Amino acid sequence: MNLILFGAPGAGKGTQSALLIEKMGMTQISTGDLFRAAIKNKTELGVKAQSYMDQGQLVPDSIVIGMVEEVLKSGVKNFILDGFPRTVPQAEALDELLKKLNLSISKAIFLEVPKAELMSRLTGRRVCKNCGAVFHIVNKPSKTEGVCDNCGGQVVQRNDDKTEVVGARLDVYDQYTSPLKDYYIKAHKYVELNGNRDTEEVFSDIKKQIS
Ligand code: AP5
Ligand code: MG
């Protein structure tokens, strides 16, 4: 089964995707992670994406769609789209792409989380520079501050999780991404879950949706 997991920045898309990989053997396609890897490797794509990301703005649709097309064409199966689509034109392009590749999406699962909670999740998030594991200074601290529990890598704050950028990301979400709710309601694929609960409780609801 292929899924879209969507929601505001900090809603828990990456956290739930990690559980879906670990416990259900699914494959995550996170456009944010793909851009961060491109930035780390200093590729042309990374250079193009970085200034948009650092300001909390969206990378232009044409760049994102081209990148996702490459991944889908590689024959990936049982996947979760995390952070894509993020605009109505991206959703339309995805529909065309899926048709062309004879693929389909079963559900678009939306994680609902109130804004005040999103702010504290984002500003408190820390990530491993090496393996990408996600922590939170209050909800899920690493055992040793600044050191990844999984690989011993350095745990840092994402550039776009600084307080001054988080506000811009949430505004961009309201303007460009929240209209996707209507898009997937009309497509009869929309499922809304309360993402403001314990991680395991949210995961248990997602599992019910895919079994
Ligand atoms: P991206 O990396 O996709 O960021 P995002 O959508 O802003 O989402 P986040 O990764 O910040 O949040 P999340 O929902 O994954 O939350 P997480 O699980 O980590 O995109 C980054 C940038 O790339 C964009 O701003 C844009 O510039 C560009 N980009 C990417 N895709 C694009 C596209 N399609 N088009 C254009 N541009 C694009 O959790 C957050 C924190 O909360 C963690 O610390 C976690 O431990 C904690 N937490 C999670 N769940 C819970 C819970 N249930 N209870 C308590 N704490 C929790
Ligand atoms: Mg994420």
Characterization of this structure:
The structure is a single chain. With 211 residues, the chain is α/β, with parallel strands linked by helices. The chain has a domain at 3-26 and 78-114 and 164-210: 3-Layer(aba) Sandwich (Rossmann fold), CATH 3.40.50. 49% of the residues lie in helices and 15% in strands. It is built from 9 helices and 8 strands. It has helices at 13-24, 31-40, 44-54, 61-73, 88-100, 115-124, 163-177, 180-186, 199-210, and strands at residues 3-6, 27-30, 79-82, 107-112, 125-128, 134-136, 155-156, 190-194. The strands form 2 sheets. It has a 5-stranded parallel β-sheet, with helices on both faces. A 3-stranded antiparallel β-sheet has the order 6-5-7. The longest helix is centred in the last third of the chain and has 15 residues, at 163-177. The N and C termini lie close together (9 Å). 32% of the residues are buried. The model has no long low-confidence stretch (mean pLDDT 96). The structure holds BIS(adenosine)-5'-pentaphosphate (AP5) and magnesium ion. Magnesium ion is lined by residues 13-14, 30, 32. BIS(adenosine)-5'-pentaphosphate binds next to helix 1, helix 2, helix 3, helix 6 and strand 6.
